[in-house]
Amino acid sequence: MNDTQKQPHRNLKDVILSRLEKEGIQPRSRFYWLSHEYALWLVWGITVLCGALSLSVASFASLYIGYALYEASHNNFLTFVLDALPYLWLVAFFLMIIVAYFNLRHTKRGYRYPMLLVVGSSIGFSILGGGFLHWLGAGWYFDKMLGEIVPAYQSRAKFEEEIWQKPLAGRLIGQAIEPIEAVDSVVFMDANGVYWHLNTTELREPDIKLLQSGRRVRILAATSSEFAEDLLYVCAVFPWLLDHAPGIKEWRNDRAEFIENVKSSRDIVRVLRPDSESVETEDAPPPVVISKTNPTDSSHCYNLSVFKRVRPKIEE
Amino acid sequence: MAAEIASPGDNEVVKLALQERAFFGHIVERYQEKLSRYITRLGIKDLDDRDDVLQEVFIKVYRNLNDYDNRYSFSAWIYRIAHNEAISWYRKKKVRPEGNLVVDSEEVLAFFNNEEEGAAERLDKKINAEHLGEALGQLDSKYRDVLILRYFEHLEYEEISDVLKLPTGTVGTLIHRAKKQLRELLQKYE
Questions:
Q1: Residues of A within an 8 Å Cβ radius of B
Q2: CATH classification of B6-93, choosing from 3.40.50.1820, 1.10.10.10, 1.10.1740.10, 1.10.10.410?
Q3: Dihedral sign (CA A89, A95, A98, A103)
Q4: Above 0.90 for ipTM, yes or no?
Q5: Is B25 in contact with A114 (Cβ distance < 8 A)?
Q6: Which among B25, B32, B167 is the nearest to A113, CB-wise?
Q7: CB distance B115 to B121 below 8 Å
């Protein structure tokens, strides 16, 4: 042992006590330490709550990514999913989990808990909270609110509009303004405020009713350079669901409606264009020029790719 | 007044020190030797530096006295403050901690050879104490820290967990790995 260890600071006690007195050092209050501890738990709670909120928006956006009608907007499911996944919210959720982890670790006894428990509890509480908030419709509301407040934020509604407000691709969002005098026509105003004359001869009865209800809807329409500029032949009509928090049931109905619509439209196409039977795959050559002079013996919807593609789930 | 109390426990002394500053002297007396040794083992060899660090440790202990939770070990709590203060000292001085374990290598040898982990963990008694000190000095600091606390300061796993702020399971793993690495380092002296 060296000298210092043999004579360990005999006067240290006096030095310390005198310093405490001289410098007026007092123990920090219990309240100070408790508030420090509570602050850490509070921040942990807030991060878990933010994680839950992120998850509720992510789950809303994932459940309502327009899957029901993806064949109408994308070539395949993979491109659709890659396009539609709520990356921002998934990243936000994982960031919140990381922050929550570090917060919990820095609480007084946080280091004692195994990593799995710390991470697991943060994720678990976030999932529970996220599920509850989703059930309350908070995901939809928060997404919508952010979309309105932050111009750069792409809410699910904006995303849907971006996909569906594409006249050249035969997709429109908007509402019927008034039926015009002709029996099979409707004046329609799209999301950009552009007016269209819609021909409804190829629509199913429920779709016509939906269109005439004046509700905001998404439509699939046949377009061709041969058509008059503002005239479209409507092939299918789907309700706009994002004016409220849509539930699973509505989402399923939307999907069922879409399948039913495609099937019916294919039937109509077959009746109107018997030669369409031979054009079943995406690789098939483009159809012959459509006769536009007499729509009763021809189908304008025949041109719409979604009715031509072979989709196992939609095929009869 | 202080003399009237016969060997009170740490928790009682803490309570008294919070009421009357003079009682804090008991804590200083009780831990100055242990902490001085611990700080030395962490590599602060210079006498003046060590005194400075030790003073700061006790000042901090007094200032943070209300933060001590008497459900847990006071010893682990005070070691934690000493550990942090030593690390802060290294940061201020911008030097890397080096162990100074040679003086007690006989002690650690004896401890290893009586450990409950069994024969597989035992080290050769013939190993030169100086070599053991050198090998300990070469260990990663995370391994050296757990070995110091376990085999020199004789702290329990839970106390080490409190000092180093690690889960108890991790402490066990680190000790196991530290011994393995130590055995490998000692092989070159055989």
A1: 1-5, 8-9, 12-17, 19-21, 25-30, 32-33, 108, 111-115
A2: 1.10.1740.10
A3: negative
A4: no
A5: no
A6: B167
A7: yes
